[in-house]
Write a structure and sequence with these properties.
Elements (H helix, E strand, L loop, with lengths): L8 E11 L5 E11 L3 H11 L15 H8 E5 L13 H8 L4 H13 L15 H5 L1
Length: 136
Amino acid sequence: MFKVAVSPHYWTEVTVFILDEEGKSQKFTFDAKFKRLSIDEMQDLNDRVAPTADEEGNKPEALTDRQLLDEVFLDWRRVLDEDGNAMSFEVANIDRVLGIYPVQPTLVQTFYGSMSGAKAKNSPAPRNTGPAARAK
């Protein structure tokens, strides 16, 4: 059975691997709440992530991972600070967590994987849309 009524958002588990002080990969998991996009919204988002040039050859700047997440990443669960206290989903904490590589690109990959219905895989080389990539 397919029920047409769907919520405007959904939760999914995020798995991120981060190197510890010894250089060993440590697995961390938390839950991310994402905005559910319609097919038109998803197409618009994809067009802004990978824009094409217009007839005059002008190409708009591509949406960065952070800009994408600002649009679709709504909340989290199971994110703790160094003392084990739950971190609220607010700008300072979001900046702090997304500043830990590779959390930000892993969230983007998880979002796309969840929207396609596939289980997102954590790539060892996520796409880079940060300042260094744009400077090239």
